[in-house]
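User: Working on a comparison across species. This one is Pimeloyl-ACP methyl ester carboxylesterase from Streptomyces avidinii. Can you predict its structure so I can line it up against the others?
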Amino acid sequence: MKNAVVTPEGDRIRWVELPGEEPARVYVHGLGATSPAYFTASATHQLLAGRRSLLVDLLGHGHSDRPEGFSYTLEAHADALAAALTAAGAKGAELIAHSMGGAVAIVLAHRHPHLVSRLVLVDANLDPQQPVPVMPGSSGIASYTEEEFLSGGWAEVRDRVGAHWWATMRLAGRTALYRTAVHLVAGTTPTMRELLLESEIPCTYLLPEADGPLPGAEALEASGVAVVSVPDCGHNIMLDNPEGFARATAAALARD
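Assistant: Here's the predicted structure for Pimeloyl-ACP methyl ester carboxylesterase from Streptomyces avidinii:
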């Protein structure tokens, strides 16, 4: 496992790295997840193997440090990831980013465009949301105050999200999980969707076919974003349909 200091306080982002050809591919997990658990099978799939691959855990998640003083805004996550990629010499990388990680990847591409040559967004958050009590995920977490979440709300979330998601969510720092969810729900200014519409970096957006048309797909496609539906899967496309995900991702990375 490799690591880099990404804050003035010495906090470290860690990643699993697979050797291969450049440019690097960087895999970024969603809220309460960890990239090695979600992306190892994809990175080693015959359609995607052979490229230098960094399976990165964002601050507060997985194997990375969990600083209590970090803001965990999408911009702060993007800047910390930029510091890690710079230390790794991974300029012009292809980012494959899921859910919340996709929102971070969009912000990274906007703030540090020299680090990103291509985006594959996997059912990524594009728009602000409203906190919704008793819902799993970011909107449910954001319905608590920070004090409520840390003093017991996290256990209610644990019971709602189920054993599969909790297996990785429990590795995240509770402050990190809460603040990341709150800032993900709030979104950015301009929004992630607006940043993506303005971006000149080649991008493909993957979504589950069962979800139906992506809202705003026509505008995204008019701006150059390819919108691709993947069958037989839910939100965790890479886990639910590994073959379909690998095919769609390989095609996205081969786009002109």
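For your comparison, note: The chain has a mean pLDDT of 97.

User: Helpful, thanks.
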